[in-house]
Amino acid sequence: MRRSVPALLALFALLAPTGVLRSADQGEPVLVEVTGRDIPVGENLEGARWFRTEWGWVVVEDPRNAETAARDLRDAVAAFRAHFGATPGRGAIFETRFAGLSEAMLADERRWTLPWRFAPAPDADECAAQAGRDDHYFDRRSGLRHELGHLFFLTMIIPNVRKSQYGGDAPDWLDEAAALAAETERVTAMRRAAFAEQVRAGRLKPASAFLRDAHPVIGAPAVAAAIAAARSRQRGVPIYLEMRIEQLGLTQERIRDFYTQSRATLDYFVERTRDPRILARIAQDIRETGHPTGWTRRPWLLDALAPGAASLDSDFETWARQFAAAHADAAERCPNG
Amino acid sequence: MLRAFKPLVVIGCLGFLAGAVPAQNPGAGATDPIAGRWTGSMTLGQSEYPINLWFDGAGSRRGRFQVIGHSTANNPLRNVTLAGSRISFDLPSRPQQQFRGTIAGRRMIGTVRVSALRGSFSVQRAR
After folding, report:
1. Which residue in A81, A95, A219, B113 is deepest, having the highest Cβ count within 10 Å?
2. pLDDT, tens digit (0-9, with 9 covering 90-100), for A173-192
3. Does residue B58 fall inside a structural domain?
4. Is residue A309 part of a domain?
5. Mean pLDDT, to the nearest integer, of A13-34?
6. Is ipTM > 0.85 here?
7. How far is B67 from chain A (nearest CA, A)?
């Protein structure tokens, strides 16, 4: 069965109307540039080049960006399959200025769309200037995979029906875990090291409280207050908010902690349940019950806690302390610098 | 869904239906220098947003604005003026966004100002 895969990919390439930038035997995703009447929209924009992959489209000007995006898309799809046992529908990654083209595509070809700002990796000076801020910022590949993880989760697992703005109807940690699961190994290693630091510094949140937490930025009272104030002055107009973290009453550390504990929560549940698709199981319970934390009382979870554990909170804390002790190295902050 | 956090955090650009939506005049784009849909992006701070603009034809100089994926397509523009190749229009958002640009064929580029923040926009004419 495995032998047939390269053959199928090669056939896919042969059927393509125009040039193949990468072929399957190179171990890279097949990437085919499509031109003229074969592009999936009636009228193209100047500079927009269409590249077809097995999992969707990449629409960019620079073919090098298409190659990296295709790899990221392949890896994000693989991570999603590993954690959720499902394959996302076809979608499209657009260089931001071309995202308007998505509206002319057939619905089956745009189950998800991601406008993306392709940018070179930061140089050493920029990296140093940003040190101590978000680790994720430094790995552009990981950033694209992260956002694809969000989109796949939103379109395939728990869509956004009741809750606006962030994370769909899922608890924010779960939506974030789906995205974190798609990140590169390097950023994952940074997250884990940062979590160890978080534990050692005494900033660990009890699991039961964390699983109910809103994302710190979106849940910040200052955001709700700013929106309410703008609406009270003039209804029916767009609101544009751009606020500094300190205006939200937050710190970069507090925000980073939410991400690192989300990643650690994923690691903890996978390790305890020995189920690599535990996120899918949790999401299924939430979908079926409509309750964000009812699954924490299910036998399949409680039976998986360490023998003698008094509660989920105590077991998670014990696990986190052991994790911190085993990850004594300081977190890498600046991988590209 | 938030991108990597920077010193400035963009919370959102939320669109709400506001009043009557100007109708687009099909076919007007063939002769009118601005009528029809324009699509591209707007850069503010460290963020880049995909945007759509629609302008009516026949000299009405009415238009709409959308941040794709963030707002509805029904945000009316105000003060649309065209003088030669120079165009200006405002989005009555909170705070107001002021666009000033130039048109060259199928491209429109310019600056956008939101309070003290200055950015840029670049769009192409599209169907």
Report:
1. A95
2. 999 999 999 999 989 999 99
3. yes
4. yes
5. 60
6. no
7. 10
